[in-house]
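A further point concerns the way the authors explain their paired sequence and structure data. The central task, working out the C-alpha coordinates from the amino acid sequence alone, is never made concrete. I therefore recommend that a typical entry be quoted early in the introduction. An entry of this sort, consisting of the sequence and the corresponding C-alpha coordinates, reads as follows:
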Amino acid sequence: MAQQVPSARGAAGHRVGPHTADCVIEAWGPDRPACLTEALLALVEVFAVPEAEAPVRVVPLWVEPASVVDILVSLLEDAIYVTDVIGVPVRFHLVDTDNGGVCGYMEVVDPSQVDQVGPIPKGVSYHDIDMAEHDGEWSCRAVIDV
Protein backbone atom coordinates (compact mmCIF):
# COMPACT_ATOMS: atom_id res chain seq x y z
CA MET A 1 0.00 0.00 0.00
CA ALA A 2 1.30 3.47 -0.86
CA GLN A 3 2.70 5.55 1.94
CA GLN A 4 0.61 8.64 2.64
CA VAL A 5 2.78 11.69 2.08
CA PRO A 6 2.14 14.49 4.58
CA SER A 7 0.62 17.52 2.88
CA ALA A 8 -1.91 20.23 3.37
CA ARG A 9 -5.34 18.84 2.60
CA GLY A 10 -6.00 19.20 -1.12
CA ALA A 11 -2.40 20.12 -1.97
CA ALA A 12 -0.43 18.36 -4.68
CA GLY A 13 3.30 17.80 -4.78
CA HIS A 14 6.17 15.43 -5.38
CA ARG A 15 9.69 14.57 -4.36
CA VAL A 16 12.60 12.63 -5.81
CA GLY A 17 15.01 10.56 -3.76
CA PRO A 18 17.91 8.15 -4.29
CA HIS A 19 17.46 4.38 -4.49
CA THR A 20 20.65 2.32 -4.91
CA ALA A 21 21.61 2.98 -8.57
CA ASP A 22 18.13 4.24 -9.41
CA CYS A 23 15.84 6.87 -7.94
CA VAL A 24 12.45 6.94 -6.26
CA ILE A 25 9.68 9.34 -7.10
CA GLU A 26 6.81 10.01 -4.74
CA ALA A 27 3.79 12.12 -5.58
CA TRP A 28 0.51 13.11 -3.98
CA GLY A 29 -2.61 15.03 -4.83
CA PRO A 30 -6.26 15.62 -4.01
CA ASP A 31 -7.37 13.34 -6.86
CA ARG A 32 -5.94 10.70 -9.16
CA PRO A 33 -5.14 13.01 -12.12
CA ALA A 34 -3.33 15.48 -9.83
CA CYS A 35 -1.27 12.69 -8.28
CA LEU A 36 -0.39 11.25 -11.70
CA THR A 37 0.55 14.71 -12.98
CA GLU A 38 2.88 15.20 -10.01
CA ALA A 39 4.46 11.78 -10.64
CA LEU A 40 5.17 12.77 -14.24
CA LEU A 41 6.67 16.09 -13.12
CA ALA A 42 8.88 14.20 -10.64
CA LEU A 43 10.02 11.87 -13.44
CA VAL A 44 11.17 14.82 -15.55
CA GLU A 45 12.86 16.41 -12.53
CA VAL A 46 15.11 13.33 -12.35
CA PHE A 47 16.94 14.41 -15.52
CA ALA A 48 15.92 17.90 -16.69
CA VAL A 49 15.09 21.44 -15.64
CA PRO A 50 13.15 23.39 -18.28
CA GLU A 51 14.55 26.78 -19.26
CA ALA A 52 12.33 29.80 -19.80
CA GLU A 53 9.11 29.36 -21.76
CA ALA A 54 9.94 27.49 -24.93
CA PRO A 55 7.91 26.54 -27.98
CA VAL A 56 6.03 23.35 -27.29
CA ARG A 57 4.64 20.41 -29.15
CA VAL A 58 1.49 18.84 -27.75
CA VAL A 59 1.51 15.05 -27.46
CA PRO A 60 -1.72 13.26 -26.49
CA LEU A 61 -1.86 10.84 -23.58
CA TRP A 62 -4.43 8.11 -23.20
CA VAL A 63 -4.46 5.05 -20.95
CA GLU A 64 -7.13 2.36 -21.04
CA PRO A 65 -8.87 1.43 -17.79
CA ALA A 66 -6.52 -0.70 -15.69
CA SER A 67 -5.26 -0.97 -12.15
CA VAL A 68 -4.01 2.32 -10.75
CA VAL A 69 -0.46 0.93 -10.69
CA ASP A 70 -0.67 -0.09 -14.36
CA ILE A 71 -1.99 3.37 -15.27
CA LEU A 72 0.91 4.98 -13.37
CA VAL A 73 3.48 2.78 -15.11
CA SER A 74 1.92 3.35 -18.53
CA LEU A 75 2.01 7.15 -18.15
CA LEU A 76 5.59 7.15 -16.85
CA GLU A 77 6.73 4.87 -19.68
CA ASP A 78 4.93 7.07 -22.23
CA ALA A 79 6.84 10.10 -20.93
CA ILE A 80 10.15 8.21 -21.13
CA TYR A 81 9.37 7.10 -24.70
CA VAL A 82 8.47 10.65 -25.76
CA THR A 83 11.74 11.88 -24.25
CA ASP A 84 13.64 9.33 -26.34
CA VAL A 85 11.95 10.11 -29.66
CA ILE A 86 10.39 13.60 -29.60
CA GLY A 87 11.62 15.86 -26.80
CA VAL A 88 11.32 16.58 -23.11
CA PRO A 89 7.84 16.74 -21.55
CA VAL A 90 7.56 19.83 -19.35
CA ARG A 91 3.85 20.13 -18.54
CA PHE A 92 1.08 17.57 -18.19
CA HIS A 93 -2.70 17.91 -18.30
CA LEU A 94 -4.70 14.84 -17.25
CA VAL A 95 -8.31 13.94 -16.48
CA ASP A 96 -10.06 10.72 -15.55
CA THR A 97 -12.21 9.19 -18.27
CA ASP A 98 -15.74 7.98 -17.61
CA ASN A 99 -14.65 4.36 -18.09
CA GLY A 100 -11.80 4.47 -15.54
CA GLY A 101 -8.89 5.35 -17.79
CA VAL A 102 -6.91 8.57 -18.03
CA CYS A 103 -6.50 10.96 -20.93
CA GLY A 104 -4.93 14.33 -21.61
CA TYR A 105 -1.76 15.64 -23.12
CA MET A 106 1.82 16.62 -22.41
CA GLU A 107 3.62 19.70 -23.62
CA VAL A 108 7.03 18.75 -25.03
CA VAL A 109 10.03 20.98 -25.77
CA ASP A 110 13.18 20.41 -27.77
CA PRO A 111 15.96 18.93 -25.59
CA SER A 112 18.01 22.08 -26.20
CA GLN A 113 15.39 23.98 -24.18
CA VAL A 114 16.19 22.17 -20.91
CA ASP A 115 19.19 21.89 -18.64
CA GLN A 116 19.97 18.20 -18.40
CA VAL A 117 20.81 17.42 -14.77
CA GLY A 118 20.96 13.63 -14.91
CA PRO A 119 20.63 10.61 -17.16
CA ILE A 120 17.35 10.09 -18.99
CA PRO A 121 15.40 7.30 -17.28
CA LYS A 122 15.36 3.89 -18.97
CA GLY A 123 12.19 2.52 -17.42
CA VAL A 124 9.93 2.00 -14.45
CA SER A 125 10.42 -0.87 -12.04
CA TYR A 126 7.48 -2.81 -10.68
CA HIS A 127 9.56 -3.39 -7.54
CA ASP A 128 8.17 -1.39 -4.60
CA ILE A 129 5.65 0.51 -6.76
CA ASP A 130 2.25 1.56 -5.52
CA MET A 131 -0.56 4.02 -5.93
CA ALA A 132 -3.59 4.31 -3.70
CA GLU A 133 -6.22 6.58 -2.23
CA HIS A 134 -6.07 7.39 1.49
CA ASP A 135 -8.81 9.42 3.13
CA GLY A 136 -9.82 11.10 -0.11
CA GLU A 137 -6.29 11.93 -1.29
CA TRP A 138 -3.99 10.01 -3.63
CA SER A 139 -0.32 9.12 -3.30
CA CYS A 140 2.10 7.02 -5.32
CA ARG A 141 5.64 5.75 -5.31
CA ALA A 142 7.76 4.35 -8.13
CA VAL A 143 11.37 3.29 -8.62
CA ILE A 144 12.78 4.74 -11.82
CA ASP A 145 15.61 2.94 -13.65
CA VAL A 146 18.25 5.45 -14.73
Notes: Residues 1-6 have pLDDT under 50 and may be disordered.
